[in-house]
UniProtKB/TrEMBL annotation, chain A:
Coiled coil: none annotated. It comes from the Bacteria. Pfam families: PaaA_PaaC. This is Phenylacetate-CoA oxygenase subunit PaaA. Gene3D superfamilies: 1.20.1260.10. InterPro entries: Aromatic_CoA_ox/epox, Ferritin-like, Ferritin-like_SF, PaaA, PaaA_PaaC. It comes from Kroppenstedtia guangzhouensis.
Automatic annotation (TrEMBL), chain B:
It comes from the Bacteria. InterPro entries: Aromatic_CoA_ox/epox (IPR052703), Ferritin-like (IPR012347), Ferritin-like_SF (IPR009078), PaaA_PaaC (IPR007814), PaaC (IPR011882). It comes from Kroppenstedtia guangzhouensis. The lineage of its organism: Bacteria, Bacillati, Bacillota, Bacilli, Bacillales. It holds the Pfam family PaaA_PaaC. This is Phenylacetate-CoA oxygenase subunit PaaI. SUPFAM superfamilies: Ferritin-like. NCBIfam families: PA_CoA_Oxy3.
Amino acid sequence: MNQKERHTRFMERVERGEKIEATDWMPEEYRKLLLKLIHMHGVSEIMGAFPEKEWVPKAPTLKRKLGIMAKVQDEVGHGQLLLRVAEDLAAPLGKTREDLIEDLIEGRVKFHNVFHMESPTWADAGVIGWLVDGAAIINQAALLNTSYGPYARVLKRICAEESFHMQHGENIILALAGGTKMQRRMLQEAVNRWWESLLFFFGPVEVTPAARRMLDYKIRRKTNEELRQQFLNKYVPRIRSLGLTIPDPDLFYDEREGKWHYTPPDWDKFGEIVKHNRGPKSEERLRLRRFAHEEQRWVREAMVRSRELQTV
Amino acid sequence: MNVESADQARQDPEYRKALVELLYQLADDELCLGHRDSEWLGVAPDIEGDVAFSSIAQDEVGHAVFHLERLHELGEPDPDFLAFSRGPTERRNAVLVERPNGDWAQTILRHFLYDVFDDVRAESLLASSYRPLAQGMAKIRREEYYHLLHLKMWVIRLAQGGGEARRRLEQALAEVWPEVGGLFSWGEGEAELLRHGLIQCRSDELMHRWAERVKPIFREAELLWPGLPPQPELQGRSGEHTQDLAELIRTMSEVYSSDPAARW
């Protein structure tokens, strides 16, 4: 079978809705698009642990302390699951887990814009769980029927856990919304801080060539804008029902068109942040990852040597 | 004579007083160490280790909650108040567990030495006259069993890894050893605790049992046994602590105390 026939067969499988497995033949382009997507997803989970990690030592009740510890642990665990999937895709390209992490530290792979931002109050920890994870669920749920089997299976587990996170976040938010004046102010300020980042999170409105190819390969099934609209549908009423204001005077739902109109996020500003790690917290959080990875290489090396000794 | 419930314990003020003192030691050890463990979230040497260590952190805080709830049943303030509002002199943890995390070798070694102690202590409490505590300990020990396996594996691997890992482990040993002795104290009320059957063995006996468990692992790791730990300078069980605990409490209660009227 020549390359062209293989490609045709592959596309037929994709069209029929079959799942592609790690050991199946796949076009180079498919492998690279998937790897880029899952690599970014994986490192975003790992970087996503940091904004909330800042609040782990300060969680204000024992219940919250246990809740946020478990939640941050889940994020790191999701990163691990996703990197396992990415490792298998990267292996034929000669890349290992160490390389995938180094790409992050060296700025060769992007992570989600939201995790470059500051989380200065306890309310931010709540908003991250509620809205950032809420946005992530919408993204991830839309990927559940992706054509790549290993990714679909990992996403299934991730989505189940994410819905716990959303409840954890919502629970923090409800306590603040029904709390003292100071707590309500803290919450409103956090919503103001996160709104623009949340809109950017779903990506540009126009379908880029790479996004188009992902739709063709059925890696993704929905466009960025469809997902953003889904987010607005779900969360605008919820945010308002808590007596909170959304910091966008131009936000409205057009009944006739059946879609939300909103002030677009500053695409250039956020583009700069994710492409060059120039967000307010990008450097600080990458330093933490660098500490974990580079300054503790001696631990991983000792583990390898000790394992070798034990198998001798 | 066994005491079956908090209500029954409250009928004997002397018994209750001794029991409360004991529960604070247990709760404060676990809370401090669990808090320190949680500081490793997201920055452990590898991602698998990060997830595993976080489970240990959650278990420790969970055990602290168990003891704080027992205290509340005995008429002490509610668990959150106890965790977030007590000052350093009211805390009864050993100084060893309030110390900030060092590197991974120090973290692992301290935790290992503590966990063996914690297991020996829990074992001795299985026969405590206070049945709610004895029953809780049986459950807690089942979880701690896995911590011990995990930490023992880490100590041996770091030691066998040679080079930098071994050097750091030996340095950690020299660093933590002077404060290990503080773990074994039952505080000023040891005689009362024994008299009421709340505990079954004296602190020196506890230390010997601990040493018998730690020595074989040191042998396997080819670490030099430094002799029994010395008496520490500060008696954490009597409320003597370092600035490190004051800072830990300040961090932990930053949000809690930012609005005294708030529910979180």
